[in-house]
């Protein structure tokens, strides 16, 4: 993260003390040089898994950021590819990298679309939505899909209890809760508020039929469970 191409510690601190929207505006020019960008390995694995579930027509990348997920849509969608995000800075970067995509500035909790999409995806954005906001988000995506449309996103297996990653994420979430209690505007970013059983229930409440597809190219854990699943939510 602290490379000549990435943000400095000072820049990250300023971002963390801003609102989510303004923070990403500040980070946009260096976002792709940080670990926060979804890895190409994961994007390729998701695209390969989606190919087996298609074909799809038009596609929507929800909270598209700088547009890393737009290439996934292009690889599996025959029709129009659209990205939506509320950060002007991130969309500016996305337009440079994806000049042929349709890019829309909007809040994901109030999507400005009719039900015209066959596939919606999202990568790395769910930590910005607390549980009640997740319900609204899923309802909005459901409304933007055609009947029979699919909302798909990768969901990594949770870290083993007691592992270094487990305590790192626990500590990060605790620090963010303290920060948001003491400082405004809030910066919503939590890693432990997107658990599979809760997510599945909220998707079903929004009207989706949910299945899980292992992303086999990412391997399996020692107990045989996949490192990552593709959550596939279909609009009935």
TrEMBL record:
A Pfam family of this chain: Methyltransf_25
Gene3D superfamilies assigned to the protein according to its UniProt record, in alphabetical order: Vaccinia Virus protein VP39
KW Lyase (keyword) present: no
GO molecular function terms attached to this record: methyltransferase activity
Keyword Methyltransferase: yes
Domain of life: Bacteria
Protein name: Methyltransferase
Organism encoding this protein: Streptomyces gardneri
């Amino acid at each position: 993260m602290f490379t000549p191409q990435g943000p400095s510690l000072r820049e990250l601190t300023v971002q963390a003390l801003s609102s989510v929207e303004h923070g990403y505006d500040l980070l946009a020019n260096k976002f792709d040089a940080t670990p926060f960008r979804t890895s190409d390995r994961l994007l390729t694995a998701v695209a390969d898994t989606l190919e087996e579930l298609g074909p799809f027509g038009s596609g929507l990348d929800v909270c598209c950021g700088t547009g890393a997920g737009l290439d996934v849509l292009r690889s599996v969608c025959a029709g129009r590819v659209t990205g939506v995000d509320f950060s002007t800075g991130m969309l500016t970067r996305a337009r440079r990298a994806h000049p042929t995509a349709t890019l829309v500035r909007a809040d994901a909790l109030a999507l400005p679309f009719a039900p015209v999409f066959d596939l919606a995806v999202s990568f790395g954005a769910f930590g910005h939505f607390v549980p009640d906001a997740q319900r609204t988000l899923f309802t909005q995506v459901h409304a933007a899909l055609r009947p029979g449309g699919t909302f798909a996103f990768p969901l990594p297996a949770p870290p083993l209890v007691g592992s270094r990653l487990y305590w790192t994420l626990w500590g990060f979430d605790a620090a963010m809760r303290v920060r948001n209690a003491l400082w405004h505007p809030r910066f919503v970013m939590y890693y432990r508020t997107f658990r599979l059983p809760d997510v599945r229930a909220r998707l079903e409440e929004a009207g989706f039929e949910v299945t899980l597809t292992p992303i086999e190219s990412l391997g399996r854990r020692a107990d045989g469970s996949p490192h990552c699943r593709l959550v596939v939510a279909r609009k009935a």
